[in-house]
Write a structure and sequence with these properties.
Blueprint (H helix, E strand, L loop, with lengths): L20 E2 L4 H5 L10 E8 L3 H17 L3 E8 L3 H13 L5 E5 L3 H6 L7 H4 L10 H6 L1 E2 L2 E2 L1 E8 L1 E5 H6 L11 H11 L1 E3 L2 E4 L10 H10 L5 E2 L4 E2 L4 H15 L23 E4 L1 H10 L7 E4 L9 E10 L6 H12 L1 H11 L9 H7 L1 H13 E2 L7 H16 L5 H19 L3
Parallel strand pairs: 2-3, 2-4, 15-16
Antiparallel strand pairs: 1-3, 4-15, 5-6, 7-15, 8-13, 8-14, 9-10, 11-12
Helix pairs in contact: 2-13, 9-10, 14-15, 16-17
């Protein structure tokens, strides 16, 4: 397996400087835009969140190909770390009118920046783009906010079900049969859990006890619940469906089925560190565990999400956005369109291992690796990412904190969700962008 990807969060920090790493050394170089008169060069600025070497090599190849096909065009490429670094650069760039023409960033940015008018709606361009009909519906929906398409999803980050076949065998379970529903998940997890006295040493099922909203959301959706009504800004995570899903996870934590952890911290994430028998995690966790423990080659199972009332899992997404400040929007979309072609989508999979986002590539993708790629395609099809509201970060903070209190016995699932909903409702007047 090839290197996978990660996604970052949002910060709200302003700065007067925009010093970026990458192919250019200054803001002036990054944002120089010539009309090409007199044989000059048109410069298209492209920023991407992330600094990993594999993706750096991928983008340099894509840019080189694009420039070769578009004589007189130069793509000024820069990388910025996820999180507050990217937020700082973007806030300053939009404030000074020097934002990039095209941006590769996360779903978490969509609602906030579309609401601020910083991302350009793409219908004018996609209405003439024949390939749009080949995009997976879930991917198009992910990039849509308030009825308008703002982002083209091109790197999904789904959570698949992973399990240790060797531990299944030792516990007398069929290593080729993962749990199919919540009842089986509980039964399997109890058999797979190992303890030293009262201390759990092997989690039967990995449940993040801190910053645990992504797994929690998957179970709420599987139970037919919803997170938020974005039209009325009404919290829905205190519904009976949500409370039932919350209590289900709490009951497993109380049984000692998991080990306390924060899965956003690589040193604590249980499955890739060999401390969980079953987990919902990214395909990268599969890769990392086999890399660190080659003796487990062939001993790790993978499948799409289980279901209760419906099938669902968490699926983040990296998207391409066009800045509303761009002075060369046609060229910007041409670059975005190039990245989204069928040929480039397949090349990205071969070079980076990223899931495909085009329906016409499904059969070829699954044929390459039937088990893993089939599970990933299933997860992308049925997965949902973070709620597309401007205050999603704060909402999930309230949910995670109250969930953590419930995991440690300070609240019931019902009280945790009602408290989180009340806290969000109280803060909403200050959180909703006018």
């Amino acid at each position: 397996m090839k290197k996978q990807w990660v996604a970052g969060g949002l910060g709200i920090i302003l700065t007067a400087s925009i010093l970026l790493s990458g192919c250019s050394s200054s803001t002036e170089q990054l944002n120089k835009k010539s009309d090409g008169a007199g044989g000059g060069t048109k410069t298209l600025t492209f920023w991407r969140a992330g600094t990993d070497p594999a993706e750096n090599a991928y983008w340099k190849r894509v840019i080189s190909d694009f420039e070769a096909k578009h004589q007189g065009v130069k793509v000024a490429y820069s990388e910025v770390p996820f999180g507050s670094d990217m937020e700082t650069k973007l806030n300053a760039a939009y404030a000074s009118g020097t934002s990039p023409d095209v941006l590769s960033y996360t779903l978490a940015s969509l609602a906030q920046r579309a609401n601020l008018g910083q991302y350009e709606p793409l219908e004018t361009y996609t209405s003439k783009w024949a390939d749009k009909s080949d995009m997976m519906e879930s991917v198009v929906d992910t990039g849509t906010y308030k009825g308008k398409l703002y982002g083209l999803g091109f790197i999904p980050d789904p959570r698949v079900l992973l399990w240790r076949k060797d531990l299944f065998k030792a516990a007398g379970l069929d290593p080729e049969k993962p749990p199919a529903n919540w009842d089986e998940l509980t039964q399997y997890a109890e058999k797979l859990t190992k303890k030293d006295g009262a201390t759990t040493t092997m989690a039967g099922f990995g449940i993040p006890t801190a910053t645990g909203w992504t797994l929690w959301q998957s179970f709420v959706l599987q139970n037919g619940g919803k997170i938020i009504d974005p039209e009325t800004n009404t919290p829905l995570f205190d519904s009976p469906e949500s409370i039932e899903a919350t209590q289900y996870l709490i009951d497993m934590v109380k049984k000692g089925i998991t080990i306390p952890n924060d899965s956003t911290k690589s040193n604590e994430n249980l499955f890739p560190n060999g401390k969980a028998a079953i987990a919902y995690d990214s395909p990268a966790a599969f890769t990392n565990l086999q890399k660190d423990h080659p003796e487990l080659n062939g001993q790790i199972g993978v499948s799409g999400p289980i279901s209760r009332k419906m099938k669902s899992t968490f699926a983040g997404m990296r998207l391409l956005f066009m800045s509303s400040q761009s002075k060369q929007k046609d060229l910007a979309f041409e670059f975005m369109q190039t990245v989204m072609t069928k040929e480039e989508t397949w090349a990205r999979y071969k070079e980076l291992g990223t899931p495909v986002v085009r329906k016409s590539l499904k059969d070829d993708y699954i044929k390459e690796n039937p088990v893993m790629n089939g599970a990933i395609f299933d997860a992308v099809t049925y997965g949902q990412g973070a709620a597309k509201v401007t205050y999603s970060g704060k909402m999930y903070e309230f949910i995670s904190l109250n969930l953590e209190e419930a995991y440690y016995g300070k609240k019931t699932g019902e009280q945790a969700m009602k408290d989180a909903a009340a806290q969000l409702t109280k803060e909403l007047p200050n959180l909703i962008s006018k």
